[in-house]
C-alpha cells in the first residue's frame, strides 16, 4: 500500500451500458478486468463512478458494483437464467448516479479519474465538470484510432464522433493508456503540445482467466462428424475482411467437396456487411461448409479454438487483436494479416500474410491442413503465462500512479 497513492475514481459506464449484451466485446472485457482487479487489490483508495445520459458523472456504492460485476461474469460464462436480471440491476445503478451527483462531497486530496473505455468521450463537459469538482487528473485508455484512420470501414458518423473523442483526450488527459505501440504512434500527433505528451503508456491487454480452466466447451451445435475446421473470431464487419475467407471457401468447396475443412465464424453481425451476409445466406457452396455462431459464451469460444486447426485473422486494421492473443495462449496456430500490431502481439509465433493476397492465404490454409493430417500428435501446450490480466491491470494502475506523481511534483495536480 502506497501512502501517497492517489484516490482512483473508476468509471464503469461501459459495463452498465452493456448489461443487455450476454456476449462481451474486447473493450467490455477490459473494463471488467480493471474493475475486478481494483475491487480485490486497491479498494482502500477506490470509488466507482458512472456517466448518466443527462450529462453528469456520479458515484456508485461499491457493494452494488461488486454484485453487478459478479452477475455479469456469470452471464458471460453462459448463465442464461441471469440474463434478464442484469439489465434491471444496471438500471438501478444508473438511477443512483443522479442522487449521488448532488449528495457526493468533493474529494480532497490527490485523485485520478480513470476511464478505460471510449464510452462518453464525446461529452467532454461532463468530464471537465467532474475533474474540476474533485481536483482530479484524467487518465483515459485509447483503444484505437481506426474510425479516423480507416473511415471507409466505420459506421456513418463514427469518424466524426471518434475525432471528438480524441479532441477530449487531447484537451483533458494528463496521461493515456494504449494497448499497443501502433496506437501510441497514431495518437502522438493529437497530444503533441498537450499535457499528455510524454505520458502515453503502452499496457498490453490481458486475457480472461477462464482460459486457464481448459473447459470442454465446444458448442453442441457443431456437427459431430469429426470434420476439421478453422475459426475466424470477430464482429462481422468490413474491416475484419471476412469476404476474403468466404471467397476462398467457395472455391475450396467447389474443388474439394466434402473434403473441405469447415470455416466457423464467431461473432455478432455488425454493419455495412451486406456482401458478406449475401454470401452466407445465398451461396450454395458455403452451405454446411461455413457455420456462423453469434451468441457463444466465453467457455464455448475457448473450446472451439482448442479444437480447431487454427485461427484465421485477415483484418485490415486492429487496435490490439484479442483473438490472436487467445490463440497464442491456447497453443492454437494462427494465420493473420501482416500489420504492425499483430507483430507486437504474436512476434514469431504466427504466419503473416497480406490481407488482400487471396492465393497466399489459400496456400497457407492448405499447408496447415496438410500439416495437421500428417502430425496427429498430443494436445497443444497452452501458455498461460502470456497476457495475464492481473499483471496487466497492475501495470495500468502503475501508469495512473506515475502520472499523478509527475503532476504532483510539477505542482499541477488538481489545477
UniProtKB/TrEMBL annotation:
Residue ranges constituting the Glycosyl transferase family domain according to the UniProt record: 223-356
Query: Which keywords does the record carry?
Result: Transferase
Which is one GO molecular function term here?
glycosyltransferase activity
**Keyword Transferase annotated:** yes
* PANTHER family linked: GLYCOSYLTRANSFERASE WBBK-RELATED, MANNOSYLTRANSFERASE A
According to UniProt, the name of this protein is Glycosyl transferase
